[in-house]
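F.,

This is the one I mentioned.
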């Protein structure tokens, strides 16, 4: 069974789709909690963007876990998350989401 831990700035998939790849890292850093909790953004799902601007899209199981974390944190932007995933039936599924300290 494969297990992995991902870290990155949170961005909803609706916003990932509309931002230029060359600016993804800086735009993800400034992506807001308010935007991430908007209805159509929640429905689109989420991804993590690392400091190099590389995107990993998360599975549907991540969405309610991310929303729960967003509702508990005070930060409005620079939302850096740690996501633990494991393989289940050939797919990577999110098992845990938590706020983490962003890189300097």
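My design for it:
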């Amino acid at each position: 069974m494969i297990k992995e831990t991902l870290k990155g700035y949170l961005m909803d998939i609706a916003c990932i789709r509309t931002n230029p790849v060359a600016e993804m890292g800086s735009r993800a850093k400034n992506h807001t909690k308010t935007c991430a909790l908007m209805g159509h953004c929640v429905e689109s799902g989420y991804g993590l963007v690392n400091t190099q601007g590389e995107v990993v899209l998360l599975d549907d199981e991540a969405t309610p876990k991310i929303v729960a974390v967003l509702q508990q944190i005070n930060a409005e932007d620079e939302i850096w998350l740690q996501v633990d995933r494991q393989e289940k039936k050939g797919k990577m599924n999110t098992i845990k989401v938590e706020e983490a300290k962003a890189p300097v």
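The chain has five helices and five strands.

Talk soon.
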